[in-house]
């Protein structure tokens, strides 16, 4: 069940990336980051009211609230902020290669905190999948731009990866068997406050206001919010209730592979042989995690 949910998470991330990439080109990544959280909060609030009878997780214990708020600050705010800054400093290709360290980091944290021992087959499957993803990322694009802050960008990408891993660990600690959607809402509340502080310090509120009037960008943000903060994040937490941290994060990173056919069909991008081979190898690696 956990592996299947993680696979669904990967599909959600695929649609999220496509939507937010389109929106980000029009209104900027910071505006997309903040507005997606607002829409995600609204969607989850409606879902919780329909399924649980109230819009805010008032039945969550102080233990859950504290850990999920901390998870939201570390995973959503710090993790996403440093990752997006790494995209600027060192480019998307190198950033995503470094970000592929999230699964092994979470696997180590799962072992240390939850005694989540992985079988030899699990380790081989994770290694094959991650190696294939890195291969696809390396050959996905030719980056001819010179980035003046390569060392800083690499450091920021690693900080983003560690923050995401720690955020997931804290989520698993705080959530237990509590509703994954309600737990996600707590994380989003923390993230909204965190990004609001960043926007205030950077004096970017006019950009946020302007983004709301860009109807085309807003449509993409709404679509991305449904598959991202609402379904994607919630399913990623739900998967943690059924499988280990390392396996869940490994499978969910398959969105890098799943996005290839969409790029081919929707954007008419060229797909090279390395990407095809990498995709097949990644699927083989994931299949080992299901066996």
Automatic annotation (TrEMBL):
Keywords: Membrane, Transmembrane, Transmembrane helix. Residues 2-137, 152-290 form the EamA domain. It comes from the Bacteria. It holds the Pfam family EamA. The chain crosses the membrane at residues 6-23, 35-55, 67-84, 96-114, 120-139, 151-173, 179-198, 218-239, 245-266, 273-290. InterPro entries: EamA_dom, EmrE-like. One of its GO terms (cellular component) is membrane. Belongs to the EamA transporter family. PANTHER family: ACYL-MALONYL CONDENSING ENZYME-RELATED, SOLUTE CARRIER FAMILY 35 MEMBER G2-RELATED. This is DMT family transporter. It comes from Candidatus Xianfuyuplasma coldseepsis.
């Amino acid at each position: 069940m956990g592996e299947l949910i993680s696979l669904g998470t990967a599909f959600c991330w695929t649609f999220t990336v496509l939507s937010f990439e389109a929106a980000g080109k029009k209104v900027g990544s910071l505006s997309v980051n903040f507005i997606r959280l607002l829409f995600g909060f609204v969607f989850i609030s409606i879902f919780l009211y329909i399924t649980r009878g109230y819009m805010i997780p008032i039945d969550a214990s102080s233990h859950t609230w504290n850990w999920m708020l901390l998870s939201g600050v570390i995973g959503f705010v710090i993790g996403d902020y440093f990752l997006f800054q790494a995209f600027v400093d060192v480019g998307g290709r190198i950033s995503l290669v470094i970000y592929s360290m999230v699964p092994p980091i979470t696997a180590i944290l799962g072992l240390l905190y939850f005694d989540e021992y992985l079988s030899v087959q699990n380790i081989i499957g994770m290694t094959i999948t991650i190696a294939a993803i890195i291969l696809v990322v390396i050959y996905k694009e030719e980056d001819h731009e010179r980035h003046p802050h390569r060392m800083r960008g690499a450091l920021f990408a690693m900080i983003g990866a560690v923050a995401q891993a720690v955020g997931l660990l804290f989520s698993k600690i705080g959530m237990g068997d509590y509703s994954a959607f309600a737990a996600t809402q707590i994380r989003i509340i923390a993230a909204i406050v965190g990004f609001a502080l960043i926007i205030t310090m950077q004096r970017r509120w006019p950009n946020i206001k302007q983004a709301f009037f860009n109807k085309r960008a807003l449509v993409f943000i709404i679509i991305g919010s449904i598959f991202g903060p609402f379904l994607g994040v919630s399913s990623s937490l739900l998967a943690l209730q059924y499988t280990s941290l390392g396996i869940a994060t490994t499978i969910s990173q398959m969105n890098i592979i799943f996005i290839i056919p969409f790029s081919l069909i929707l954007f008419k991008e060229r797909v090279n042989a390395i990407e095809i081979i990498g995709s097949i190898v990644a699927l083989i690696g994931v299949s080992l995690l299901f066996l």
